[in-house]
Amino acid sequence: MKFTSVLVTVVVGVLLQVALARFTVGGTWVFDLVLVAVVFAGLQWGPTAGMIGGTLGGLLQDLLSGTIAGVSGLAKTLVGFVAGLIGTQFVLTRAHGRSIIVAGCSIVHRVLMLALTGLIEQHWPGTTWGAMLAETIVNTAAGFVLFQLVATVPGLVARQRLGRRAGFGRRQW
Amino acid sequence: MIDRRTLALLVTLCLGQVLLISAQVQSQGGVPLLQVAAFDAFARVQRVTTAITDAVTGVWSGYFGLRGVARENAALRQQLLDMAVELQQQRAISSQVRSLEELLGLKAAVPVETVAARVIAGNITPGTLTVAIDRGTDDGLAPDMAVIGAEGVIGRVINPVAPHAATVQLLIDANAAAAIVFERSQTGAIAVGGQSDGTLRAEFVPVLADIEPGELVTTSGQDRVFPPGFPVGTVESISGAGTPNRTIRIRPAADFSHLDVVLVVLTPPPPLPAATEAR
Lengths: 173, 279
What we know:
Chain A is mostly helical. Helices cover about 80% and strands about 0% of the residues of chain A. Chain B is globular. At the A-B interface, helix 1, helix 3, helix 4, helix 5 and helix 6 of A face helix 1, helix 2, strand 1, strand 2 and strand 4 of B.
């Protein structure tokens, strides 16, 4: 059940990434919704789920983008594991607390990606702090929306159901 | 804190991926079969998601976003009129060129065969400027084919190429380059991507070459990927003029933020003259 949930989360992240990235090609706004999905899996279901989600999401990203398979996979495996570890060590229930973890993970992930690419290509790939900051902001915002939805939607649905039942009861009596 | 099983799984996953990376780095290649299979499978899903997003944006632009259509219509009519005049001028120039070519005994330019393709997905890995298109090997596509748009050069087809989908590396990507020629001065150079502001940088430009801002830059065909004569962009700025460290920035002609339909050039560029090849 947990594996299916992780798989669905990662696939939804990949689908959203490819669908939305089409509108931002060549723009300054860069985001990684697969990373947000991996951090979500880690915080929600623990370190094992985080690293499995990271491996699946990262490898899928590598295979689809035609780059060296394993680079994004390795970075996301480590980030997913760390996110899961943080989720088990600290009580993070509020959306803003969890989105701060997304922000931290975005920076760590970008640095890991740069380091791995630098090691493979034997030169430090060019990056700007502005691009890294923009990516962190967009990822954090996406994470905040996701965590807020997860926190409020089940409660809203339950309240609606209760309200419907109560209404039905009043009509009967 | 963490049980042994979790740690063992982490180490296994990391080691497995390190081995996967080293295998590809050593062989100087990717994992083509796996890549093509994954890309092809996902391209079908991407086509569905594209259809859904297009339907949503279509409903929005077709019913809700109709404000200003009359103004846009008038502007388009004017544009059509201007283009009709321009077309007549171009026709006149073309017939002049043809008669001159006949006079000089030159071979007529080979028309390029193209296939239209739709962009179905953006770059999945941030930092990699690629897009996926809905045409693949079944439509005659192969790696290193040029991709052009209405305004100019877009990029080239790279691996993985699946039967019904292909990856296009955009000209502004850090690993992309094209052989160019400055139209006014007829100076050859290489345009490379990877600039943070979305421009291209001209490399290998002779120090004494007279380049001016606003100059049109087209493909030269020397790279054997892009056919000659297609617009790449215009010279935006020149810094350090008169020094060996002169930096020439080119603003691409194509708008990479609104890619929808592109053309893939199926005809390979004509062979280079023997003298150029020997050099």
